Amino acid sequence: MIIKVKKPIKITLKKYFVIVPVFVFASYSLTTESFLEKITNNKVLSGDEAFTFSSHIKDDESIILTWTIKENCFLYKDKFKTFLNTNLVEDQKIEGEAVRINDIYFGNVDVFYNSVIQTIEKTEDLGSIKVVYQGCNEKGFCYPPIIKEIQVDNLENF
Question: Which alpha helices (H) appear in 31-146, and where do they start and end?
Fold first, then answer.
């Protein structure tokens, strides 16, 4: 009877010494990226965080609209629309280095990385400016069109 008890213990210990190192190794390899890192790596920025927008008056003659674009995000060149006092501006002066990409949603399009600047002539009767723009991040998340309305009287000089 003593032999029968020792043999199952020996077999169990052998299994234990094989299985435990496998689980230890597996659990170590899974924890190399912490839970907090996984959450922050998958976080999608809000539209205002991804595309920081600002506006100001320059030399009392023009209004400068700027977008600072976060890393791994871009704005579509053809998705910019500008309205002056509710009238669509046909010939927009948008400055920035456009790059052609093959987008999964819109095909071959020009996009802006880093920054974009738009200059608008300031006139006496200009009361408001509305801009519409759209972009995505390189993880495949596309933002809905973002709309900003600016009251020209509230703008500060640069």
Answer: 35-41, 47-50
d(CA 119, CA 117): 7
Mean pLDDT of the chain: 81
Co-location of 72 and 150 in the same domain: yes
Instruction: Note the pLDDT tens digit of each residue in 124-137.
Output: 889 999 999 999 99
Q: Are both 113 and 66 inside the same structural domain?
A: yes
| Chain Cα centroid distance, residue 43 | 9
Q: Are residue 11 and residue 74 in the same domain, yes or no?
A: no
Q: What single letter denotes the amino acid at residue 67?
A: W
DSSP annotation of 79 reads G
Least confident of 4-18, 82-96, 128-142: 4-18
Give mean pLDDT, residues 17-40: 48
* pTM recorded for the entire structure: 0.70
The single residue listed with the structure tokens 């990226």 is 33
Which are the contacts of 135, defined by CB distance < 8 A and separation ≥ 6? 47, 50, 51, 69, 73, 74, 75, 76, 79, 111, 142, 143
Total domains in the chain come to 2
